[in-house]
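Structure first, sequence second, as always.
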């Protein structure tokens, strides 16, 4: 078989939300990129995700927000119910944030719809499927102007020379490992996510619904008039998850129904109406924020974005949102006309400086949010008297009434606008 050698300006590893958004951001500023995707088709693992105002600002900058806002309606708030006491608290997502933020709102969208909205804007030859990265090599000429600084070796024998490499290859990123970032940490929690389908309509109020109990938190939110996105996060040990880890979606559904047996019928109906084959189970992992603050996030013209940079627990729904922010910020720095080696290295350093602390903050806020909410329910019996009472007080009085709105304030973040690129006529 003849060895294939390719030469590219920018190579992106990973064709998920971060990878496609980054490719589109670069296209908007006049730079063509190649996306390497290990799967043989568009990767749509994960049925849906919730996008908060910071994500909608990024999508507006990318020029695709309108494709989704015409289909998915914004939430104005939500309800959080303590399963043990039955007490419900209302949360307002848009209070005192101004008309501009109110118009954007927070919406749950199908993951496929988001990926297709991004993909439709890219040239047909942007993604190279069935392309698994084996190793990364930097050439000796990496500091010479206009040289191909990076050599990528794929498992199919292909070699790619590139000026810029951006790893968007998820929590177990090959690129982040090459940079020397430490592996992700296990939070001790697991999550199941799914989409319920009600062909005749679900009739559920268009807001975020949450139920919290000792050690777990369940929530659901309408996507459309017929589809509802739901998820549960819970604390347990790996040896108790062996059956779930086998991946049988029917077993996953049954186990979740057993866990939430005391919830109202409306909540159980959501689980029972799930698109069973699409159910996903996974351990919740994250990167220690100090590893991101003090670790090596770039090397010359090699860097990472999305979960490859800042894997976080899903408690604030910010994994996909911050990935979209990353894409726009990268596009602001790696723009047309800034393609000499020294300039590229400088711009990538500026990108890392801008994203390092923002990402570390979101990792921390997400972890704290999950820890407080899943440790504070169910009264005192399961957590040892005063300890259980204290955690419940921290959740219901301190967190929801004081800290929650401040933490949610992190989603009102503007990642900036992409510079205007004007295509020169021949």
């Amino acid at each position: 078989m003849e060895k294939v050698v390719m030469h590219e300006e920018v190579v992106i590893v990973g064709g998920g939300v971060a990878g496609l958004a980054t490719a589109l951001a670069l296209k908007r500023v006049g730079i063509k990129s190649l996306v390497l995707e290990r799967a043989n088709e568009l990767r749509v693992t994960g049925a849906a995700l919730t996008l908060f105002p910071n994500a909608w600002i990024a999508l507006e900058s990318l020029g695709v927000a309108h494709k989704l806002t015409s289909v998915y309606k914004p939430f104005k708030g939500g309800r959080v119910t303590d399963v043990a006491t039955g007490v419900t608290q209302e949360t307002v997502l848009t209070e005192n944030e101004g008309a501009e933020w109110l118009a954007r709102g927070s919406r749950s969208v199908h993951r496929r719809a988001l990926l297709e909205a991004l993909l439709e804007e890219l040239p047909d030859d942007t993604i190279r499927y069935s392309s698994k990265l084996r190793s990364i090599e930097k050439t000796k000429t990496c500091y010479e102007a206009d040289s191909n600084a990076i050599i990528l070796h794929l498992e199919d024998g292909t070699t790619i020379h590139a000026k810029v490499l951006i790893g968007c290859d998820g929590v177990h990123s090959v690129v982040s490992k090459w940079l020397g970032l430490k592996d992700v940490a296990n939070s001790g929690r697991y999550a199941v996510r799914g989409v319920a389908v009600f062909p005749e309509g679900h009739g559920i109020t268009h807001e975020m619904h949450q139920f919290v109990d000792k050690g777990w938190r369940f929530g659901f939110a309408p996507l459309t008039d017929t589809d509802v996105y739901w998820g549960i996060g819970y604390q347990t040990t790996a040896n108790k998850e062996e059956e779930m880890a086998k991946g049988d979606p029917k077993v996953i559904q049954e186990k979740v129904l057993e866990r939430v047996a005391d919830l109202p019928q409306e909540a159980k109906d959501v689980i029972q109406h799930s698109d069973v084959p699409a159910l996903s189970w996974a351990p919740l992992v994250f990167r220690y924020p100090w590893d991101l603050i003090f670790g090596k996030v770039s090397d010359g013209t090699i860097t990472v974005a999305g979960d490859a940079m800042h894997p976080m627990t899903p408690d604030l729904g910010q994994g996909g949102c911050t990935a979209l922010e990353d894409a726009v910020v990268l596009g602001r720095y790696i723009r047309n006309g800034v393609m000499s080696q020294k300039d590229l290295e400088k711009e990538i350093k500026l990108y890392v400086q801008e994203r390092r602390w923002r990402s570390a903050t979101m990792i921390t806020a997400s972890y704290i949010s999950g820890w407080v909410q899943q440790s504070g329910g169910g009264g005192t019996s399961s957590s040892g008297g005063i300890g259980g009472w204290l955690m419940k007080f921290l959740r219901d009085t301190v967190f929801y009434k004081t800290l929650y709105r401040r933490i949610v304030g992190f989603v009102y973040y503007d990642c900036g606008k992409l510079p205007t690129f004007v295509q020169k006529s021949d």
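Margin note: Residues 376-387 have pLDDT under 50 and may be disordered.
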